[in-house]
């Protein structure tokens, strides 16, 4: 697990240095890579295509990604640093806990949580288009920014708010990680409020 964590952190950092793009643009790409890997890993585990041991080993990539992103956000004085620090620390702590205790129930809960990453590409695409003044970009007579915002709101609400609340309910009082599940859900509620506030005018 330690090796996987170090290799993933180094990979993300090396990937960052390999492209002459703005820091936020490259961060969107790396975020999407992480989201895709963790989402697919969770689907494979929940459908019993891979076992728990392999799932936990692959999930160590999130620790590496969390360390990388905390560092990048800090050195760039990102205004979302504090919220993202809390989010990444939750992910790091949860993955270390799973590795140490090998709890099947909580591993499944972690996998269910990673399904929420389905909203990440829509979030990153919306932010990229907005920050690069491409909100009027059309593909096949469809406004890409508008479609991305609609998909973001739908996936974020279904997976992070509704499904997230269900995960809070079924993990409540199970162990100390239940507290982290609550914090994660509250963070998502806060972010969903900001998404609605900023996106509704474009829909």
From TrEMBL:
UniProt subcellular location: Membrane
Domain TLC: start-end pairs: 16-203
Chief subcellular location: membrane
Keywords on record: Membrane, Transmembrane, Transmembrane helix
Signal peptide from the UniProt entry: none
A GO BP annotation: lipid homeostasis
Ranges annotated as spanning the membrane: 54-73, 85-105, 111-130, 150-168, 174-193
InterPro entries: TLC-dom, TLCD
UniProt name for this protein: TLC domain-containing protein
Taxonomic classification: unclassified sequences, metagenomes, organismal metagenomes
């Amino acid at each position: 697990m330690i090796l996987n964590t170090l290799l993933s952190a180094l990979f993300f950092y090396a990937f960052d240095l390999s492209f002459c793009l703005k820091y936020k643009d490259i961060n969107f790409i790396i975020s999407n890579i992480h989201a895709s890997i963790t989402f697919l890993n969770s689907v494979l585990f929940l459908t019993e295509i891979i076992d728990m041991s392999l799932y936990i080993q692959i999930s160590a990539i999130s620790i590496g990604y969390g360390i990388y992103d905390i560092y990048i956000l800090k050195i760039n004085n990102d205004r979302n640093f504090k919220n993202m620090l809390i989010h990444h620390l939750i992910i790091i702590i949860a993955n270390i806990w799973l590795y140490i205790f090998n709890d099947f129930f909580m591993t499944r809960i972690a996998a269910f949580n990673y399904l929420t990453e389905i909203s990440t590409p829509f979030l990153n695409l919306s932010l990229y288009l907005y920050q690069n003044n491409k909100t009027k970009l059309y593909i096949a007579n469809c406004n890409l920014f508008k479609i991305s915002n609609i998909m973001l709101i739908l996936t974020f609400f279904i997976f992070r708010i509704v499904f997230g609340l269900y995960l809070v309910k079924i993990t409540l009082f199970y162990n100390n990680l239940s507290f982290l599940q609550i914090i994660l859900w509250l963070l998502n509620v806060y972010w969903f409020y900001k998404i609605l506030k900023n996106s509704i005018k474009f829909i």
